[in-house]
Specification:
This protein is of the alpha/beta class. The strands form two sheets. Strands 6-7-8-3-9-10 form a six-stranded mixed β-sheet, sandwiched between helices. A four-stranded antiparallel β-sheet has the order 2-1-4-5, with helices on one face. It has helices spanning 44-51, 74-79, 97-104, 113-123, 125-129, 140-152, 170-187, 198-204, 222-227, 229-236; strands at 6-15, 18-28, 33-37, 59-64, 67-68, 82-85, 158-162, 190-195, 207-212, 215-221. It has ten helices and ten strands. It is globular. This is ABC transporter ATP-binding protein. Residues 6-238 form the ABC transporter domain. InterPro entries: AAA+_ATPase, ABC_branched_ATPase_LivF/BraG, ABC_transporter-like_ATP-bd, ABC_transporter-like_CS, BCAA_Transport_ATP-bd_LivF, P-loop_NTPase. It holds the Pfam family ABC_tran.
């Protein structure tokens, strides 16, 4: 198998003296959707933010396409076309939908702006209807669509999705996950998704990792993790 697009090797991350990640190893290959599941507070979002350089890994290394990015500033990591749709959406509430998307396109430049705009509007037609509306007045589901669309405007080689289903109605969750699957199948987009909703994440992903208290405890093909008794008992009851 070819070298992974993203490789996290032995990463330890701290908040002050509190260790949040302990020796984390993960790999994401080109064209894959990889899910990281775990309970609230397991360290999933910390790993996502560590990949983006804030907070920094205290030890270990993060390799993207053969380049060590462990100590790069966040803006330089973004220039490598690693895009994040963060937990809690964090759109610009006073800016319109269009202005939010323009902010997302800064890394990619203007050459393909109209083409990329049409691409995200095809994925999320609701955003086209709301193009002049302030981000802060959108529904939760529309804000999540906007956060993902803003990330896509940078033409990412790796899309990082942090809790995209959080607080959303099941129908909206399905629309968002269908859009992610379509991007992967049609364009080969590589996706690393962090999710509390283990069932949806593992149904979407090719491979998965389970995190408990800042450590990776299980990994493997998603279909195998879905049938593991310890995964079903901890994360899938009632799914």
């Amino acid at each position: 198998m070819s070298a992974p697009l993203l490789s996290v090797r032995g990463v330890h991350t701290y908040y002050g003296n509190i260790r949040a990640l302990e020796g984390v190893d993960i790999e994401v290959h080109r064209g894959e959707i990889v899910a990281l599941i775990g309970s609230n507070g397991a360290g999933k979002s910390t790993l996502m933010m560590t990949i983006c350089g804030n907070p920094r890994a205290r030890s270990g290394e993060i390799i993207f396409d053969g380049q060590n990015i462990t100590n790069l500033p966040t803006h330089e990591i973004a220039r490598l076309h690693i895009a994040q749709s963060p937990e809690g959406r964090r759109i610009f509430p006073r800016m319109s939908v269009l202005e939010n998307l323009q902010m997302g396109s800064v890394v990619a430049g203007d050459a393909h702006f109209e083409e990329d705009l049409e691409r995200v509007f095809t994925l999320f037609p609701r955003l086209k209807e709301r193009i002049g509306q302030r981000g802060g007045t959108l529904s939760g589901g529309e804000q999540q669509m906007l956060a993902i669309a803003r990330a896509l405007m940078s033409r990412p080689r790796l899309l990082l999705l942090d809790e995209p289903s959080l607080g959303l109605a099941p129908l909206i969750v399905k629309q968002i996950f269908d859009a992610i699957r379509a991007l992967n199948e049609r364009e080969g987009l590589t996706v690393f998704i962090v999710e509390q909703n283990a069932y949806h994440a593992l149904k979407l992903a090719h491979r998965g990792y389970v995190m408990v208290n800042g450590k990776i405890t299980l990994s493997g093909p998603s279909k195998d993790l879905l049938t593991r008794e310890e995964v079903r008992a901890a994360y899938l009851e009632g799914a």
